[in-house]
Design a protein that fits this description.
single chain, 320 residues, mainly alpha, Serine Threonine Protein Phosphatase 5, Tetratricopeptide repeat, 2 domains, two-stranded antiparallel ribbon, 16 helices, globular, disordered N terminus
Length: 320
């Protein structure tokens, strides 16, 4: 999955959009694309079926070239086979070709072509295409900006169980963009995505419990959801969980644990974590600092290796 993160709004301090693009290789986790059970064991057989006009084989071969599975990665070849599948009406091929046009991989970047292919796939009920089409409408890429259409397609993706679409729809309800502002609906959709393990949604839900927006204020719930996101290596949630330890909200007051989570967040690229370390260090004893440094040394390398493409998620760190 490749992330596209935008827009920041104020909650207690920050709550951000989860606007993401999911690439073809991520479809197995989202219920899209032919399964590996449909894949011939021999690449030569797959190629023969693709050259014979089998749309599913064309899509699978395109994905092999997209990901470099069993062949040298080649985006132009991926585009060729995705196009062949798309021409036959394959929603998977249409979505994947749209992604390549949006990203400019193997083809010249062309948002209009991306929209055309996402639309074709979305009309067939392809959840990731629905989400990505919603994002194109939200940000006016390749199509006139329309929050009404963004809501329409995010909702379609959400109802098909797409966690990213659910998070995007929740963000629009929180902001009141394209829909009447409704914190309860925002919390409902953040929870739907959070229940699927989507870290930005988990952290956003934690922020809503922390502030009591759309849900009763509940620091135990805030800590639970922040921890779930933090333990996935989501740097912003690591800062938020550290803050809960620093303040003793939903978890015991524990400067050492707060420091360790801030260090993990800093290693993962969240500058807020680095800033909190400097502030917290002034409150800690030498013994606490020594213990925190010792514990943090074993976690920061893991956090840095898992940080990947981090999108801003919820944040409720309050300035002192």
């Amino acid at each position: 999955m490749i992330s596209r993160a935008l827009a920041v709004i104020t909650l207690l301090s920050l709550l951000s959009f989860c606007s993401f693009v999911e690439m073809a290789a991520g479809q197995a986790n989202s219920g899209g694309g032919p399964s590996d059970a449909a894949r011939p064991a021999d690449l030569a057989i797959l190629r023969e079926k693709a050259e014979g006009g089998d749309a599913a084989a064309q899509y699978l071969l395109g994905t092999d070239y997209m990901t470099g599975k069993g062949v040298a990665q080649d985006f132009k070849e991926a585009a060729k086979w995705y196009s062949a599948a798309a021409t036959q009406g394959s929603a998977d091929g249409q979505f994947s070709l749209g992604y390549l046009y949006e990203q400019g991989k193997g083809v010249s970047r062309d948002y209009s072509q991306a929209v055309a292919n996402y639309t074709a796939a979305a009309r067939q009920g392809h959840p990731i295409a629905e989400n990505n089409l919603g994002s194109m409408y939200e940000h006016g890429r390749g199509v006139a900006r329309s929050l009404d259409e963004a809501v329409r397609w995010y909702r379609a993706a959400s109802e098909h169980g797409n966690a990213v679409g659910q998070c995007n729809l929740a963000s629009l309800y929180f902001l009141g963009n394209g829909v009447k502002q409704d914190y309860s609906e925002a919390a409902r959709w953040f929870r739907a995505a959070a229940d699927q393990g989507f870290a930005p949604a988990q952290d956003n839900l934690a922020a809503m419990y922390n502030s009591g927006s759309g849900v009763p204020r509940d620091y135990l719930e805030a800590a639970k959801w922040a921890r779930r996101a933090a333990e996935q290596g989501y740097a912003r949630a690591q800062t938020d969980l550290g803050y809960l330890y620093e303040e003793g909200r939903g978890v015991p007051l524990d400067y050492v644990s707060a420091y360790v989570w801030y260090e993990s967040a800093s290693a993962g690229g969240d500058e807020r974590g680095r800033a909190r370390i400097k502030s917290l260090a002034h409150l800690m004893t030498k013994q606490q600092l020594s213990e925190a440094t010792r514990r943090a040394s074993g976690t920061t390398q893991q956090s840095a290796s898992r940080s990947g493409n981090q999108a801003p998620g919820a944040s409720f760190v309050e300035p002192h």
